[in-house]
Amino acid sequence: MAAMTPTPASTAPHAGTGATAPAGPAAPGTAARPRRRPRPRVWRGAVLLLAGAYFLVPLIASFVFTVHVPGQGISFEAYTQLLSADGFTESMLLSLGLAAATIATSLLLAVPALVAVRLSSPRLRPVVEVMCMLPLVVPPIALVTGITTVLRWGPEHLSRTPLYQTFVAVQNEQFPVVLVLAYTVLALPFVYRSLDAGLRAIDVPTLVEAARSCGASWPYVVLRVLLPNLRASLAGAAFLTLALVLGEFTIASLLGFRPFAVWIVTISGAHARMSVAVSILSLLITWLLLLVLSRAGTNPATVSSAPSTSTSRKES
């Protein structure tokens, strides 16, 4: 009788066969619990709604102020007169030119310095970080005072030397180079943070050693190996610098120049609606440039290679 009594081993399915043992009734304590329905993420929608209202409500109110004239109704005169306004085109082109020059100068200073520190002197990184963060501590009014004192040396002490012409050239109203130098100093903290995050995300020593072992020169290593891996960081640094230059008012105003931000404040007294319209237009231009820079910061080769990689995995 013991030989005929089925055992758990004899009731198990044999290897190589598709037969399976019938499943018995589940124990009362191990009954499958019904799945809970996912709760709607109300808090996420509320936070997004509040953030959208925080940004959009002032913009909508500003737009209504520019197009609604009491007693006349809706009028787009504040926008149609922008291009013909005195100084609009000149100030806008000046600010864009200053922004381009500041971006180029900041990147030319920061990229080689940070790469050299990361490769050769990692101990100097705290020193470089402190130096780049100093503009956040020094107020712009103190920076303007120092720049004014230095510029005063030209006519007072260097009028009979060739350097006097240099002091005059950097203060040219058509393109004030002194503003580029000042904006470069102000943009250093943002450029440093963006590039430092990008350099931390990649293995710089390994990339450089691999490229140098293949016979690549240092300019080739920087331009063709490191910079393509820093596209997002470079785009972020460029956008932050652009936003800084387009919105900076204190230094340009105290030094007597008239870029876009100073021009907006200048016309705000006589043309309030036009000044608000120009502010809205500047925000739209900044957002458009942000989209362009964010597009430039993405690597198209990575995006285009993603579908081909998944296809090759499926085929394999």
User: What share of residues are in beta strands?
Assistant: under 5%
Low-confidence stretches: 1-5, 7-21, 301-316
Overall geometry: flat
Biggest sheet character: 2 strands, antiparallel
- The gyration radius over C-alpha positions equals 32 Å
**Overall SS class:** mainly alpha
Give me the strand/helix succession. Answer: HHEEHHHHHHHHHHHHHH
Please give the alpha-carbon distance between the first and last residues.
55 Å
Question: Assembly type of the shown chains?
Answer: single chain
Strand order of the largest sheet: 1-2
Helix content: over 70%
With helices defined by DSSP (H or I, 4 residues minimum), what is the helix count?
Answer: 16
Number of strands: 2
Summarize model confidence as the mean pLDDT. 79
Could you explain the architecture of this structure?
With 316 residues, the protein is mostly helical. Helix content is 71%, strand content 1%. A two-stranded antiparallel sheet has the order 1-2. It is flat.
Which helices and strands, and how do they pair?
Blueprint: H1 8-11, H2 42-67, E1 68-69, E2 73-74, H3 77-80, H4 88-119, H5 125-137, H6 140-151, H7 153-157, H8 163-169, H9 177-201, H10 204-213, H11 218-229, H12 231-247, H13 250-255, H14 260-267, H15 272-297, H16 300-315
Antiparallel strand pairs: 1-2
Features:
16 helices; mainly alpha; 316 residues; two-stranded antiparallel ribbon
Summarize the structure.
This protein has 316 residues and is mainly alpha-helical.
